[in-house]
Amino acid sequence: MYTEHQTPPKIGLALSGGGIRAVSHLGVIQALTDHGIQFSHISGTSAGAIAAAFFAEGYSPRDFLKIITETRLFRLLRPSLGHTGLVSILNARFLLNRYIPHNSFEKLKIKITIAAVDFGEGKLVYFTDGELDLIILAACCLPGIFKPIIINDHMYVDGGILNNFPVEPLVGNCDLIIGSFCNHLPSVTNIKSFGSMIDRAAMIAINASLDPHKKLCDVIIEPHGLGGYGIFDTEAAEEIFLIGYEEGLKAIKSNEVLKNLIAELNPAKRLGRR
């Protein structure tokens, strides 16, 4: 336990991809920050990279939820096939620049790492500097739907195809790592649409390689009520936020690591309960 004269623990937060389901990360973050938890480093990919960047810029989770519901940000990330078979994701760039105009990793209030895949080299890349907007879009660039993002003559696509839960950049840099994962796989008895089938196939693949990443976390928060939402169900953002918030509160009440951490971060409240 640290005292007010000692340095607080460095707390890392890993955010998975998951399309609109990643709005649950905002609810989780809201619950944790409401209880005094602050983050020194956030790592994310795909929609988790968007959540990381906006929170690191200083937007509260509820403020960012309002941005999502009032703008076309996530709708602009929804595939719409053109006559060439691929569309550009760059049409979302102007919105990112509106809300994060400095466009710089270094000027964010919290350090972030964004995972994307170098499509030409076939390898995962962790970004901590460069043009923030292009790297966010690269991390969200679904291959086969969107044209790859070109950065320094390399093609980049969604980091989730190789690591949808990028905990690794936090290891060794944080005293405690909290992971928020939004792709819990529920049991089903039927598939209602082609889109649902593709989404479920992707979730099965993601969950199959999840365990090594989970083991790197001290705390995992994984809302179980998101299985009914597709990654492009943009109208459900507020519902998904509340699911994440409730799951965050549940973890705070039941997880011993979180309970001890919050007690250490709020010594006055702890003494007041004695």
TrEMBL record:
* UniProt entry tagged with the keyword Hydrolase: yes
Q: Which PROSITE patterns match?
A: PNPLA
Taxonomy-wise, where does this protein's organism fall, top ranks first?
Bacteria, Pseudomonadati, Bacteroidota, Sphingobacteriia, Sphingobacteriales
Q: Which residues form the active site?
A: S46, D158
Q: Where is this motif: GXSXG?
A: 44-48
Q: Which InterPro entries match?
A: Acyl_Trfase/lysoPLipase, NTE, PNPLA_dom
Alphabetized Pfam families for the sequence: Patatin
Q: In its keyword annotation, does this UniProt entry include Hydrolase?
A: yes
Give all residue intervals belonging to the PNPLA domain: 13-171
Q: What is this protein called?
A: Patatin-like phospholipase family protein
For the motif DGA/G, give the residue ranges: 158-160
Keywords linked to the UniProt accession:
Hydrolase, Lipid degradation, Lipid metabolism
- Superkingdom of source: Bacteria
